[in-house]
Amino acid sequence: MKKIDQPVIVKIAKIIDESPVYKTFVFDYPLNARPGQYVMLWLPKVDAKPFSIAWQTSDQFGLAAIKIGPYTEKLFACQKGDLLGILGPYGTSYNFSGDLPAGLSADEAGEAGKKILIIGGGSGVASVTFLAQKAREENIKVDFVLAAKAKDQLIYEDWLKKLGINVYHRFQEGGAEHAWDIFKNLAEKNNYDGLYGCGPELLLKKLVDFSLAKNIFCQVSLERYMKCGIGVCGSCCMDPLGICLCEQGPVVNNHLANQLTEFGKYHRDGAGQKVYFNQ
């Protein structure tokens, strides 16, 4: 039987305006999460929604949010000192070496980890900033490509640079497409031990295809409609394997992603209807 977690009540320690449209909500709590994992953030009397962990310290963690609907409108109305609930951390995580991601054998995993290349686009940036933080803590060199449609959606650039990370960015309409050109150029000119990404799915499809063709260790974080976070409701299942992304994701390796026939083609909305990506 599935264990139903109860929310842990946490206090908002700080709210950081990252840009005109993004905020980071900082909570006082020793989360002990792994890069790529997420929490369900519960607003009392409203709802609970999944958020990737943008960074963490021994006693705090940060969640990045953009105001895009009724839930985030309520979240953006919260103030320092307000009490919210968290469930988790949940899901799979990125890895450099040692611990294996879902679906990858020890032989396939190899020695990923000495120098890595990361791409983060849109709201997906938060998932991979935590990865970059962890990599630097392990003395791994990091090149990071940031993608956004506009300058006011470009976040964490200064924070990443303070960690000693080489940051490349592209902000314009079609930013992910142009950022991919930068990413691919870097990947072809450098001998990276691993490629990582989170962002628009068509961008991640290019990343997975590229990594498989070049035989480079790769992990991506996928997004689907998540309701429960514990693999019960099935709203985040992916065809044809039926994996629940809330438990067997969101981070998957390139081999597993390549087995998901809907990857890069369509996703499902809250009612379970297929919504095709614009090719």
Automatic annotation (TrEMBL):
Its cofactor is [2Fe-2S] cluster. [2Fe-2S] cluster binds at C228, C233, C236, C246. It comes from Candidatus Komeilibacteria bacterium RIFCSPLOWO2_01_FULL_45_10. It holds the Pfam family DHODB_Fe-S_bind. This is FAD-binding FR-type domain-containing protein. One of its GO terms (molecular function) is flavin adenine dinucleotide binding. Residues 5-96 form the FAD-binding FR-type domain. PANTHER family: DIHYDROOROTATE DEHYDROGENASE B (NAD(+)), ELECTRON TRANSFER SUBUNIT (PTHR43513), DIHYDROOROTATE DEHYDROGENASE B (NAD(+)), ELECTRON TRANSFER SUBUNIT-RELATED (PTHR43513:SF3). Keywords: 2Fe-2S, Iron, Iron-sulfur, Metal-binding. One of its GO terms (biological process) is pyrimidine nucleotide biosynthetic process. The keyword Transferase does not apply. It comes from the Bacteria. PROSITE patterns: FAD_FR. Binds 1 [2Fe-2S] cluster per subunit.
